């Protein structure tokens, strides 16, 4: 599931194909901010009503960006009554961190 850090060895074609949609999803400033807002929100999840006020964008535009993040697997959501709550998929963020992070020093 996890690739070696980029600093250790090059990605193979299959790994690059699998990771590219994740990086593409967070390459947009709005989506990157949304991901950050959700990840940092108290309790580890955020209602869509907590997210929209941070942007000067319409609700449908915010919904589109959230859908892109969901489709990439970076976030998940659940409808509770009239509101939708979002949380970060920690496994996917750990994977991105592992691929971008430097190799860990060997333990003696």
Automatic annotation (TrEMBL):
Domain of life: Bacteria
Keywords of the record: DNA-binding, Transcription, Transcription regulation
One matching Pfam family: HTH_5
Record domain HTH arsR-type: where: 11-108
UniProt keyword DNA-binding, yes or no: yes
Name of the protein: Metalloregulator ArsR/SmtB family transcription factor
CDD domains xref list: HTH_ARSR (cd00090)
NCBIfam families cross-referenced by the UniProt entry: HTH_metalloreg
